[in-house]
Amino acid sequence: MPIVDPRTGDPLSTPQSEASAAQADPSQYIVDVDMSNFQQVVLEGSMQIPVVLDCWAPWCEPCKSLTPVLEKLAHEYAGSFVLAKLNIEDNQQIAAQLGIRSVPDVKLIMQGQLYDQFQGALPEKQIRDWLGQYLSAPQDAEASPEEQAEAALADGDSATARAIYEQLVQDYPDYHDYQIGLASALVGEGRADEARALLDNLPPEHRDAAKTRGVRARIEFGEEAPDAEEIAALEGRDDSEARFKRALRQVADGRYEEGLEGLLALLKSDRSYGEDIARKTLLRVFDALGAEHPLTVTYRRKLFALLY
Questions:
Q1: Where is there biased composition of kind Polar residues (predicted)?
Q2: What is the C-alpha separation between 159 and 141, in angstroms, rounded?
Q3: What is the pTM of this model?
Q4: Residues annotated as catalytic (active site), given as ranges
Q5: Which domains are present in the chain?
């Protein structure tokens, strides 16, 4: 796995080959460090292979959830980095030299230098992204819980996504994206009131975040869309009202591409319908999906081409 210098993007040369890293003994890449081996493992060792230094303490509750995640990733990377665990309670001199003020404190040491660091018990996906700036992820890496939840939502399996997000919320109560993900799963299960209550209880800075607005938009689509009986009554109709209601139902059901296509077609044929409601609804769907979603990118471009 190539190791890159984040400041230049160039590969860093290391005496240890990928093959020997892959065959490393787990005891060699997850190590408890103290005064007796800190120099050898962290400072000298980082000249050959990156070292992730996990500074923790027995009384630190967040450390108890973070360290197992770091150990799991160390096993997955199979020797592409060494996880060095430093108990600051037993090694206060080292902690003072490192300037540790609170734990957990995680530092990335490469070529004998501090390259990056973070504090607090970050979720697994964020730690993976952090490592990914410097190391290529192992090809056989297991999907993180958040990735599994997102995949379940994409497959329409809201119950599985909800179960995963509930556990993530329990493990990381201060990471509010997981609460937003849980709200999204609740919407998929038809539990809009619970989802809305969850979003309403978010801190003010998260209540109007893009992801939150997206979930709220899905709740609103579900409330506005015609039910199955009304959709059945529209069979055989191809007027603007029928086309709009079908598109709205498709969006509410999570069939976004069909709904977007229907709204775009309605905009082409009858832009004046409902005081330009097709265009306005397209913008609401973009908000629900998020600016980076592939469908948002594609259909925003189509909308721009149609209008201008």
A1: 11-20
A2: 24
A3: 0.67
A4: 60, 63
A5: 18-132 (3.40.30.10), 145-215 (1.25.40), 225-307 (1.25.40.10)
